[in-house]
Amino acid sequence: MTILNKKILLGVTGGIAAYKSADLVRKLRQAGAEVRVAMTEAATRLVTPLTFQALSGHQVMLDWEQPESDFAMDHIALARWADVILIAPATADFMAHLAHGFASDVLSTLCLATTAPLVVAPAMNQQMWQHPAVQANTAQLAARGVHLVGPSSGDQACGDVGEGRMVEPHELVVFLSTLFQSSNRLKGKTVLITAGPTQESIDPVRYLSNHSSGKMGYALAQAALDEGAEVIIVTGPSASRPPVSASVIHVTTAQQMYDAVMGEIATVDIFIAAAAVSDYRCEQVATQKIKKNSDQYHLILQRNPDILAAVANLENRPFVFGFAAETENILENARAKLRQKKLDMIAVNDVSNPKIGFLSDRNKLTILWKDGEKELQVSPKIMLAHDVMDVMLEQFNIEG
Ligand code: CTP
Questions:
Q1: Could you confirm whether 158 is annotated as catalytic?
Q2: pLDDT value of residue 373
Q3: Do residue 166 and residue 202 come from a single domain?
Q4: Which stretches within 131-202 are classed as H helix?
Q5: Which atom of ligand 1 is the closest one to the Cα of 322?
Q6: Are residues 225 and 84 in the same domain?
Q7: Å from CA of 199 to ligand 1 middle
Q8: Whole-number mean pLDDT of the chain?
Q9: Is 336 helix (H, G, I), strand (E, B) or coil?
């Protein structure tokens, strides 16, 4: 994975995350890329062009006339020069410009005048990100082949907490590396991924579930999309957003997840079971809220279908890749699951470590297959997902 000698045009728009873009320029250059920067006028009110000039080693392209500038390239030449255009941060306003093809400033003009891939890292208030207009623009950009990275969730500069933060500079560097590396290896393939938790009702207000966030499944979906696959996600309830270019089927219970998977599986080439499926459901769901009348209360639980095992046992089965969440004897238990469930590959993670796994944006996985294994280091889930795809494509002959 490398961006060595790549020509990256960084577009900075007027979001508070623009201060992080200064660090992004440093990181891109440290990784060997050549960087030029274009800024919208709003961005220049947050960070001075001089900062980007100093960090990139080149004059920054701005909206207004630069008569004294030694700028060797006009905007068309700059648009042709770029191997990729990265907009980070991308405000809601700029994304609307992009979605509608405006050429009202130098940066949006550059985006129209290029044939290079366009990568957009949205950054805005969480309420704005959720707005249907922003979502519609995002979907339109995705449909046009624009690569969307993030936003991630967490504390926001405005005091809100939620989805809308620009992804971290090092994650953008990783994304660009994988973009240059990925070569549509899954073009023509359909990948079905289960993600998130399932919920099994106890009564009208309570349910059995687990801590799965869906993030690992969604990252795998993005990585498969980046490799050119058609991706279907069957997901349990999750606060995170699945990648916009995937087809998404929302379910709640394990049985619904099973039914949705079986409804799609006939045309699937690769099945990835990343969901944390409830192994049991209540034998009977109480129709009224259960009252606390006694000191103990017993639930009778009934086994749910094992979706992964069912797919692996199909006569015309796709490539089957499962996950194992373990707290002890990690590798032994995973190898047993690989064998017992007749899987092609399994990824195991240690869910006893709170710094990684379920609710975290980072994870550590070991991949096992019949006659081998590979340990992947702790990294952001999107990077890990690309590493998983690499292992899968290196070990098995499933390229498109
Ligand atoms: N899985 C599934 N359907 C189920 C249970 C699990 O498809 N009803 C899949 C998960 O998506 C995962 C794999 O099986 O890919 C292993 O899940 P895990 O919870 O680690 O193991 P279990 O098979 O449930 O075994 P146990 O809970 O006994 O460890």
A1: yes
A2: 95
A3: no
A4: 132-143, 169-181
A5: 15
A6: no
A7: 15
A8: 91
A9: helix
358 lines ligand 1 (CB under 6 A): no
Tell me if 221 CB under 6 Å of ligand 1: no
Which of the listed residues 121, 155, 181 is the one where a domain comes to its end?
181
Give the chain's domain count: 2
Structure letter (DSSP) for residue 276: B
CA 324 to ligand 1 centroid distance, Å: 7
The arithmetic mean of pLDDT across residues 288-305, rounded, is: 95
374 beta partners: 367
Distance 276 CA to ligand 1 centre (A): 7
Q: Tell whether 109 and 237 lie within a shared domain.
A: no
Q: Which of 181, 207, 239 is the last residue of a domain?
A: 181
Region at 70 (left for phi over 0; alpha for psi -120 to 50; beta for the rest):
alpha
Nearest residue (by CA) to ligand 1, atom 21, is 324
Which DSSP letter does residue 248 get? E
pLDDT surpasses 60 at 69: no
Residue 31 has pLDDT above 60, yes or no: yes
The tens digit of pLDDT for each residue in 173-189 reads: 988 887 887 668 898 99
Could you tell me the two tokens for 234? 């069957």
